[in-house]
Amino acid sequence: MRIGYARVSTGEQKLDLQLDELEEAGCERVYQEQVSGAAESRPELERCLEELREGDTLVVWRLDRFGRSLKDLVSKMEALEEKGVDFVSLTEGIDTTTAQGKLTFHIFGALAEFERELARERTMAGLRAARERGRVGGRPPALCEEDIPQVQALMQDEDVSTSDICERFGISRATLYRYVGPDGDRRK
Description:
Layout: E1 2-8, H1 16-24, E2 29-34, H2 43-51, E3 57-60, H3 70-83, E4 86-89, E5 94-95, H4 99-132, H5 147-156, H6 162-169, H7 173-179
Parallel strand pairs: 1-2, 1-3, 3-4
Antiparallel strand pairs: 4-5
Helix pairs in contact: 3-4
């Protein structure tokens, strides 16, 4: 079964062009909605994807109607492939029922993987450069070295509650116990 999905972002936009194209492409059913492509939740698309069965073909007018980003698009296309569902994008001429369409899909996937690797490499290079300049990433310690003896002394004082110590240093009870145990012994 050929199933279509059409989406517009705003109320001023009309679905007519997409619906005409999807009907001409032989779609027996079309899911349609008006929601921004950046929106996390697209209920009609989710319903459409749930109802697709092996052997079905999902048809969209353009790729940007289906995926929010290249990564999102590749993820959705992989999910379709796992279900045994073919994909057609009318404007871009992608049709995974053909060898050329499958090649195009895999090129998109390779580009997305390449983009992820570049981002990872840039992140690692940035962290290396920061370390070379003496900056260490991560969250700063909740308690500094000078605070620990003071915390230990307060833990031994029966007039000071654990809650008071936590409030004074702006930490949780779990954090306090990570640095000094419930009995006040240093842990780190």
